[in-house]
């Protein structure tokens, strides 16, 4: 196996809570707590979990849109956390993001032409004439036309705006993209179009991608491997085929049991979790999933389970894993 393009080791991101007249730090939100994984060149890895599990924070911290509290992020062997401003700009050209909300992520005062050529100007790629041609080709790549260059974002549908967001991410020809729930704000019919577009781009451009989502059906369709997160920690990692057919962690089983089967008359045995996801301000001791786990024992409160290999490339963080 080749060296990973992205390697994340013991990543932590804590947000301080301040209070009182002097705004002292009174507590901490542990949004991401000791997360580790690798992504190989050309691989699409899904990052799934309930809302509040820390998925988006992982993606933003990898790109240094948020400053990590601890841990290492290495991209093509470079330590991203230690790059100075000048070097970080060079790496930003190689790492881009597709934002979740196509309505908020585009500047309403700019035409599509300006939105797509800004990254090229920032990174000093090509001439003004080449920028124009590049912007037109990007629109064609994502299924739009040159005629859309002089329109404002409010003149497009949600799916078209997301396509423009994808085109902007591709403008500087990155090697790695964080796709932060790129279809969650779209209608189901539009979701299918955008997912098919991303799948085509993955094949045509050999893109490496961290695909953040809560729709496990979409993840199964586009991803090679899946990382399951809960309350800032990784519960399970595995190839799509293994994880979907032989889930090991109780949390993964509960998530998969909620995925509808598109065949009339067929049903899954539903695993209903009790209660709500705990607060990341005061997470449970030991295994953070134990307060909702049907298999929890006293030992689960005393030790934090480590990821253990249960098959080729398949890891699970559960003390009951054999």
Number of distinct helices: 9
- Uncertain stretches: none
Q: How far apart are the termini?
A: 26 Å
Tell me the total number of β-strands.
12
Average pLDDT taken over every residue: 90
Strand content: 15-25%
Fraction of residues in helix: 25-40%
Q: Compute the gyration radius: what is it?
A: 21 Å
Q: What sort of overall outline do the alpha carbons produce when their principal axes are compared?
A: globular
Protein structure class: alpha/beta
Q: Largest sheet, if any?
A: 8 strands, mixed
What letter string, H or E per element, gives the SSE order? EEEHEEHEHHHEHEHEEHHEE
Strand order of the largest sheet: 6-7-8-3-9-10-12-11
Q: Would you give an account of this structure?
A:
- The protein has 322 residues and is an alpha/beta fold.
- It has a domain at 234-322.
- It has helices at residues 55-62, 85-94, 112-122, 128-141, 158-170, 188-205, 216-222, 240-245, 250-257; strands at residues 6-19, 24-39, 44-48, 70-75, 78-79, 95-98, 176-180, 208-212, 225-230, 233-239, 308-311, 314-316.
- It has an eight-stranded mixed beta sheet with strand order 6-7-8-3-9-10-12-11, sandwiched between helices. It has a four-stranded antiparallel beta sheet with strand order 2-1-4-5.
- A hairpin with a 2-residue loop joins strand 11 and strand 12.
- Helix 3 (112-122) crosses helix 4 (128-141) and helix 4 (128-141) packs across helix 5.
- The longest helix has 18 residues, at 188-205.
- The protein is globular.
């Amino acid at each position: 196996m080749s060296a990973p393009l992205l390697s994340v080791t013991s990543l932590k991101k804590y947000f301080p809570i301040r209070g009182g007249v002097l705004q002292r730090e009174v507590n901490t939100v542990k949004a991401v707590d000791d997360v580790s994984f690798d992504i190989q060149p050309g691989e699409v890895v899904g990052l799934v979990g309930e809302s509040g599990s820390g998925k988006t924070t992982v993606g933003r911290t990898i790109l240094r849109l948020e400053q990590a509290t601890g841990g290492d992020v290495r991209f093509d062997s470079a330590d991203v956390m230690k790059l100075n401003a000048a070097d970080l700009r060079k790496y930003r050209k190689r790492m881009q993001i597709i934002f979740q909300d196509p309505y908020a992520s585009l500047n309403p005062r700019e035409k599509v032409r300006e939105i797509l050529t800004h990254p090229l100007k920032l990174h000093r790629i090509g001439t003004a004439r080449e920028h124009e041609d590049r912007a037109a080709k990007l629109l064609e790549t994502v299924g739009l036309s040159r005629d859309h260059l002089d329109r404002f974002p409010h003149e497009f549908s949600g799916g078209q705006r997301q396509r423009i967001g994808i085109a902007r991410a591709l403008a500087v020809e990155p090697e790695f993209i964080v796709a932060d729930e790129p279809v969650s704000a779209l209608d189901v019919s539009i979701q299918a179009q955008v997912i098919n577009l991303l799948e085509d781009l993955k094949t045509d451009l050999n893109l490496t991608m961290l695909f953040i989502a809560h729709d496990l059906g979409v993840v199964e369709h586009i991803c090679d491997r899946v990382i399951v997160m809960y309350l800032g920690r990784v519960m399970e990692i595995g190839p799509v085929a293994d994880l979907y057919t032989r889930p090991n962690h109780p949390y993964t089983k509960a998530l998969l049991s909620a995925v509808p089967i598109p065949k009339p008359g067929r049903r899954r045995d539903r695993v209903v979790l009790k209660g709500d996801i705990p607060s990341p301000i005061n997470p449970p001791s030991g295994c953070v999933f134990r307060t909702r786990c049907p298999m929890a024992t006293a030992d689960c409160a005393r030790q934090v389970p480590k990821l253990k290999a249960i098959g080729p490339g398949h890891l699970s963080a559960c003390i009951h894993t054999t």
